[in-house]
Amino acid sequence: EDYAGFDPLKIWINEAHKRNIKVHVWFQSFYVGNKSPETHPEYILAKRPDWANCQKKNAFSQTIAYSVSEHNGYFIDPANPEVQAFLLELLEEIITEYKPDGINLDYIRYPNSTSSRSNNSAWGFTEYARNDFQILYGVDPIELSPSEPMWLDWNEYRRSHITNFVKKVGNLCRDKKVYISTVIFPDLASALSTKQQDWRTWSKNGYIDGFTPLFLTNDSNMLASMMRDVMQVKAPETELYAGLFVTFMGGAPEDLVDKSIKLET
After folding, report:
1. Which helix (H) or strand (E) segment is 212 a member of?
2. Arithmetic mean of pLDDT over the chain
């Protein structure tokens, strides 16, 4: 109701374009906020609780799970084709109606888990994903343990759905001549094991135009190391825009300026 009769995104883009400023829309892909669906009937998970992502430990719970390690945020299931279709429809509406210069996909991953060998903390054990995986592999993933070889298939199953969505959005953006970038975690091994985010494949296959890595550090040497890690893995054609979160990590504004200068030099 705060925006009745007022469209901030349209005004923002129109005014920016008048000043020759490009606008890339930040799109929170599989993250849907941290307000409880039980107390907010208009939220997407209140309307479609079957779209909610969940952990192995609460796969049979009637309460929708949230990620404690991510500000108690709720997530939707990347494996569910209805979820992907819904998000693609939103993106096409944004591109068609607002004419942004780019789309920046954030939360293009599963919620954070402890590691690829974690059990109860792993996400993705929705009814849809479990049934689909069982059709493909003959076993319900909830019966698997991280020590079993098929756990690797379960990891790859989840990663493939994230990658498939990135590919779809990439095709949409290319058709509409819109730039596409993705927020990534620079440590590829950690991104793969704790978030099922295979950004190397996105880059290698040309699904995206650029990366906006999350460099969550106040340490200049660590920042340089993280930057090198991404540069060494990404394809040469993939552009990189450093995401500096110094103030978010408790640093001073002066630290942000200092690290910006160091990156440029």
Report:
1. strand 210-215
2. 92
